[in-house]
Amino acid sequence: MSVRELVVLGTASQVPTRHRNHNGYLLRWDGEGILFDPGEGTQRQMLRAGVAAHDLNRICVTHFHGDHSLGLAGVIQRINLDRVPHEITAHYPRSGQRFFDRLRYATAYRETVDLTEAPIAADGPLARTDGYMLEARKLSHPVESYGYRIIEPDGRRMLPERLAAHGIKGPDVGRIQREGSLGAVSLDDVSEVRRGQRFAFVMDTRLCDGVDALAEGCDMLVIESTFLDEDEELAVEHGHLTAGQAARVAREGGVRHLVLTHFSQRYTDPDEFERQARAAGYDGELTVAHDLLRVPVPKRR
Length: 301
Description:
Blueprint: E1 4-10, E2 24-29, E3 32-36, H1 42-49, E4 58-60, H2 66-69, H3 72-81, E5 88-93, H4 97-104, E6 115-120, E7 124-128, E8 133-138, E9 146-151, E10 155-158, H5 160-165, H6 171-179, E11 181-182, E12 185-186, H7 187-190, E13 191-194, E14 198-202, H8 209-215, E15 220-224, H9 232-238, H10 243-253, E16 257-261, H11 271-279, E17 285-288, E18 294-296
Parallel strand pairs: 3-4, 4-5, 5-6, 14-15, 15-16, 16-17
Antiparallel strand pairs: 1-2, 1-18, 2-3, 7-8, 8-9, 9-14, 10-13, 11-12
């Protein structure tokens, strides 16, 4: 059975708090697991959330600030300790290669896993599988940062009334799907395009073209909202977004489910992030993330 869900491992910006761990997010996408921005403590949060090292297939780091990457050392050593039998690919900004190297080899351990390094130097596709394409877009932050987007290939939705009108049933339904036609009847005559799902992950950034490109048409957008709107000047100065800015990006991009996260410790009322997002005009499904939350990716339209 295919599962598509976000497992939130941590939601704090800069430093962990009593109630929020450093960043960490696992996307379950059918049979794969993609770990985004493993901050300090991610290995323990994985244990609490029921996420095993064997569940990981990719690690995607947006940038090399500690709250987004200090957990790499523990996660990498854990996948080697557990002898994960499949290849794991790590994506991260090429400009941070020295930081990745230090974290990968922070202490002595025995390497048992094929960990493929795939650093990013420019916008564009990073990987293609049967189930999705992974791409990156550059963001605007004091250090080089990239956001990620997963795009499922478009499929076809068979239309029962059209199949019946053409007298196609039983094994012939599968045949026309595989071959594209059946006699004079084409696949287009009895089906329509089913748009593939889209997921985007946007962390530390100011508003920029990359944010908009990543969010466009997404079924789920996971995006930082470090500050509330009254502190917009601070957000711009430090390279972050406010709740209202993130919500406007989602509204203008047609996002179906907005997940706000990466909250500054200065705020004590998480409900205020939702209030400001709604005030900015976003009327889709909205989640203000907390640690160990599971959020299903919306079902296909």
